Amino acid sequence: MSLGPVSRNDETAAFFDGTARGELLLRTCPSGHWSEPEAACCTTCGVTDLSWSASKGTGRVVSWSAVHGRPRDDGSADRRVIAVVELDEGPWWWTALQDVEQPSEGLRVQVAFTVPAEDSETVPYFVPA
Predict the structure, then answer these.
(1) What is the rounded radius of gyration, in angstroms, for the C-alpha atoms of the chain?
(2) In what order do the strands lie in the sheet with 25-28?
(3) How far apart are CA 42 and CA 59, in angstroms?
């Protein structure tokens, strides 16, 4: 998988603590609405009292695209599939898909985690469920 190294900062520390434990953390408000990790306020009701909650880590592909690398001398080329996944909790997630030959809208997926480089945080990606 070709994911670059990722570093934490104060705003992302809780999220990356979760990925290191194998959890995809999202922001939730007291009313139970789910928002993406970078949300400063609830994307449903607007309150700013958000906490971190573990997502189920499952969802469905909303859209996808294949990104082809430059051909090598032997004619082969890397192919990455990137996608927008609607998590079962509601937020949309931009991600890499692995182990998918023919992506399709509605494909059920689940989160997986990798450490892409020695000095990187653990990052999520998705595979077929």
Answers:
(1) 16
(2) 34-35, 25-28, 51-54
(3) 20
Candidates 51, 61, 55, 28; CA nearest to 113 is 55
Averaged pLDDT in 10-residue chunks for the chain of 129 residues: 76 95 97 94 96 97 92 86 96 94 94 92 95
Q: Which residues contact 15 (CB under 8 A, 6 or more apart)?
A: 25, 37, 52
For residue 29, what are the CA distances in angstroms to 21, 42, 54, 105, 110? Answer: 22, 6, 13, 29, 24
Q: Tell me the pTM.
A: 0.88
| Dist. CA 113–CA 129, nearest whole Å | 14
- 100 closest CA partner among 85, 80, 84: 80
